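Fold this: Nicotinate-nucleotide--dimethylbenzimidazole phosphoribosyltransferase
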Amino acid sequence: MALPNSWLTPPPRPSTAHAALATERQRVLTKPPGSLGQLEQIAITLAGLTGTDQPTVDPIHIVVFAGDHGVCAEGVSAFPQEVTAQMIANFASGGAAISVMAEELGASLEVVNLGTVGEIPELPGVLNQIIAPSTANLAETPAMTSSQVVAALTSGDQTAERAARAKCRLFIGGDMGIGNTTSAAALACALLDQAPHTLVGPGTGLNTEGVARKTRVVERALARHGNDQDVLSVLTSLGGFEIAALTGAILGCAARKIPVLVDGFIVSVAALTAVHRQPGVRDWLIFAHRSAEPGHHAVLKALDASPLLDLGMRLGEGSGAAIALPLLRSACALHNRMASFSDAGVSGKSED
């Protein structure tokens, strides 16, 4: 199986012409310059990303990628591994946080099951693209084979293609996988050359002893992996099915000119991986929130990201991005529908 084209080819650049027009429009709207804060820059950014004078984020496509992790054998999670499969059923029945938010926001929600240790029946809204029941234990051996990581990247790229065919103007990716904060922390440590104790956190709620054990597991994984900095090698060795699929989706969306509203720690690590492979992907990312997971701070700094919200969230699923979505909608509405000074007959700012 060949790697997706988006892995091999840099993404297009946003439209500087439309961003410039949006900047000029913000200058003449009936408000003091800068008085809408980050909402002004969001509108300008979206105008450049969507290549239009009337930026919008609708329609929106939300995808949750799910997969189990062999590293759970090391006791790195406060929750049992069967929760991954149980949560997929919860997504399908509408009971999960992201399910509620997708309905509330009028966004489409798709769940992609890449492999769980628990069997899952056919469920509405769940696409089964099983790679294996779980990754291997990354503390002992590479998490994925080369064919498995390509399958996960391809699954993500195919999701971006479906979003493009549906003419979506914004993509939100989410994650589900018990043990995935261990994988994400290991990936971030390798890509950023940082020590595990600075990035490993409690995940689903580990106590101090549990975090220390998890840190030792990541240390073992990094020692096994060695100094290979090739992005595909790092992802194969330390990643998870859902993290690789998110990476593929982010690369695929950028290649198809679809902005991505980035969720918390797991999705941000996937974004970091994508940007390490294709630096131009960074232009297509808007960061929703700052997670309470400690590793997220380092990842955001590396990506030069200023998240919109800081609410102490650490759920995953794409939930933080969904909570931030109304801010993007508000930014577009204000940009598109506010009157200019000349339209409203209002005197502009004095030049003295």
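The mean pLDDT is 96. Residues 146-165 form the longest helix (20 residues).
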